[in-house]
Each structure stands twice: as structure tokens, then as C-alpha cells.
């Protein structure tokens, strides 16, 4: 799970942000940053007066957060060490693609209070298509191809490939809506960033707990 820049992301991508996310949480809101990385978004939440906690599997990144005085915990998106329905809000900035997305979305629905909001940024198909078409190295082109094949494998079997080929998934609106319905969530707003060959590179969703 990662909320920063992956090794493959060195390839000239526009920075991804979560539009309007921070403005929506009143001071004192309990907000979890799923895939907090080194704490870029977590710092902003703390500055805005939220009771923010970061979650990540990267111990080094969490060490950076702790040295900055941020509240973080080691854990996976698929099994958040958080009680049921305690979060007023949630953000996840390109963390879901690196998880078992179905289980991770179950956890999102579980930890949010009724009426709480989540702000999510996902990888679209265009993100990996661009790697295949114009990646600067064979390895990066293979990474793009592997991510697409891995997503197709996951969609059919519910399982990812192992190792390099199973590193990342891209998300689709249709698949996400299925999770939202299952987990008591609604899609309250959405937008896409730039496209590549007509396909979304990033997808931004605002979700609400029913």
C-alpha cells in the first residue's frame, strides 16, 4: 500500500491530488489516511485540525511520519486495525490499486460512520496503457502490461498474480460501484483527470456511508 510515488511513477506523471478533500472535514473529525506513505496528506489533515491517523505497510515511511509528530499505525488496508464505524472521514490517495481491492473496500465501509465521507483516488486503465505505449524502459513497459493482465486475472478469479506481475491493479467505475453497493457506500461525486488514448489515468471518487 502506497500513497507516495512508486518506483514506476518516475515516468512523467502529473501529480495526483484529492480535490476538495481537506475542506470537507470539520475540525476535530476523526479521519484515517489509508496508505499514508510519508505523510503528505496526513500533514494537511493535521494542520486543518482533524484527529488524523495514518495507515501504511511501509515501516520506513511510518518512521518519517512519527518523527514529524504524526499519528500512524502499521497495518493493511484489507485488515485495518480500527473499530467499526468510528471514522468521520477517510482518504485514500492511490493506495487501493496495491491491495486486494474487494477486501479493502469492505474495510472502508466497515470503519466509516453513517453519513461519513471518503475521498478516493484510483488508477484507471489509461495509467498503465501509457506505460505500455511510451514507457522509457522495457521493465516499465512490462510493468504496465503486467498490471493490466493482473487486473483481468483478478476480475475473473478474485486472485492476483504473484511477484512482479501481481503488483498493481487498475480500477473501473463499474467494479467500484459493485463494491459500494455491497458495502453500504454511495458514489456522491466523481471526476477524472487527464486521459490517455481516451482512457482515464486517474479516477477521483467522493463516497458516503449510507
| Number of H- or I-type helical stretches | 6
Helix content: 25-40%
Quote the distance from N terminus to C terminus. Answer: 26 Å
The CATH class is Alpha Beta
Low-confidence parts lasting 5 or more residues at pLDDT below 50? 1-15
Overview in brief:
This protein is 32% helix and 25% strand. It has 6 helices and 9 strands; from the N terminus they run βαβαββαβαααββββ.
What do these coordinates show?
With 210 residues, the chain is of the alpha/beta class. It has one domain (7-123, 170-209): Rossmann fold. 32% of the residues lie in helices and 25% in strands. It has 6 helices and 9 strands, in the order E-H-E-H-E-E-H-E-H-H-H-E-E-E-E. It has helices spanning 40-47, 59-67, 101-111, 125-134, 138-157, 173-182, and strands at residues 30-34, 51-56, 72-74, 87-93, 112-123, 185-192, 195-196, 199-200, 202-209. Helix 4 (125-134) runs antiparallel to helix 5 (138-157). The longest helix has 20 residues, at 138-157. The protein starts with 29 loop residues before the first strand and ends with a strand. The model is unreliable at 1-15 (pLDDT under 50).
